Amino acid sequence: MLEVEITQQRSIHTTKWEIILGMSLYQVIKLLKQNDDQIKSVVLVYNDKDPLSADYTLNLSNDSILLHFDSITQRLKLIELYDLKKVKLKYFGNCFNSPQIVPTIENINEIFGPTRPGDYNRESQSFLMHFPGLTFFFNQIGPQVETKPMNGRTLKSSNDKPGSLEETAEAIRSRGGQCIPVCVNHENESEIEALFERITKEQDGRLDILVNNAYKGVERLLMTSGKPFWEVEPDMFDEINNVGLRNHYYCAVYAARLMVPRKQGLIVFISSPGGLRYLFNVAYGVGKAACDRMASDTAVELRKHNVASISLWPAGVGTDTIQASEYNAGFLKMLQKFDKPESAEYAGLIIAHLAQNPSLMQYSGKIVTTADYGATYSIPDIDGQYPTNIRSFSFLIKQVPSLSWLSGWIPGFLKVPYWLWHQASNKF
Length: 428
Prior knowledge:
The chain is an alpha/beta fold. 33% of the residues lie in helices and 17% in strands. It contains 14 helices and 18 strands. It has helices spanning 25-34, 105-112, 165-174, 189-202, 218-224, 236-262, 282-302, 320-324, 329-335, 346-356, 360-363, 370-376, 393-398, 418-421; strands at 3-7, 11-13, 18-20, 43-45, 56-60, 65-69, 76-81, 88-91, 94-95, 119-121, 126-131, 134-138, 150-151, 153-154, 209-212, 266-270, 308-313, 367-369. The strands form four sheets. A seven-stranded mixed beta sheet has the order 4-5-6-7-12-11-10, with no helix packed on it. Strands 3-2-1-8-9 form a five-stranded mixed beta sheet, with no helix packed on it. It has a four-stranded parallel beta sheet with strand order 15-16-17-18, sandwiched between helices. Helix 4 runs parallel beside helix 6 and helix 6 (236-262) runs parallel beside helix 7 (282-302). The radius of gyration is 25 Å and the shape is globular.
């Protein structure tokens, strides 16, 4: 059985060859001929009457791999895997299928992350699950897939993954609010633009607050935490920062186009101390530092239009995704160092207050920590308590095992000044 490694958004490869998205039809055919000891059967399919009307495909039938080429450019645009019993697939060196164990749609979603809605065929009960440059075909999976679009946050809830869009929307409605859940693939520029076009149309061009908190790659971040960057595949940077940084810029652009004409609005970038000092890995820290800078620089250009841009730092937060991950041991251990971690709702309480604060523009362009702002304006968490402040001496000294016993003797109100805190950052 052929053993193939998948590199998402790039290629499939073995130890002898690699088929890369964007390769020409000629290059791929030549490569397959050179490796006919591994690839036993290849069938070229195209419309001989109208060659430009449909994709050219190379069917590696023994291995259930279908390669789709654009009919005009004849460049590889999609790799389809259609029978997961016939080929052994690996991702980051880990095999996730065999002739006896075929992964489910949920398994693929766990491995590769959120995807855009696939194509369900009611008649054949088959489902195409799409990722950029990669598609999985599932046959006879049953009609339940119709209600399971997987896009960022899933629209419907599942038994083991809380926090779906519908659950969140219901929580808002139960408190008297209004919510319209929308599935958006934040790696897809056209879907991002379509979201803001919908807001423009349905809300008469009004957008009061944008919170940039979409993120991809949490599972992989937890899996690779502690590994040096050269031991991790370089596409780690894109997986973390395409959604967690690049997407934030796109959203900020479209949000500003709605806010500037109305001379009001608030853009929030959810960041972390990882933008100041090393945390988790290189890709994470670079992304968070860039979020802080994006908030600062956008604020410069937005200030004269009375639109605020802020970088918000929550402290220790045990989100649904982290709590459910099997690789979360290290993070949960770190979370235990906080006497009072933040709830997932606390940042929302802070943002809601910021948006109504007459002094909002004083915070524009700055980093705001949830704990400091909450203490300043007497905003407790949902349990009535105040979260641990990462600037407090008692918290910081607890991170030093030999001195942790002193933390109980240091008053909680004693904090490291911001000017001293800044000395921990990169500097000349």
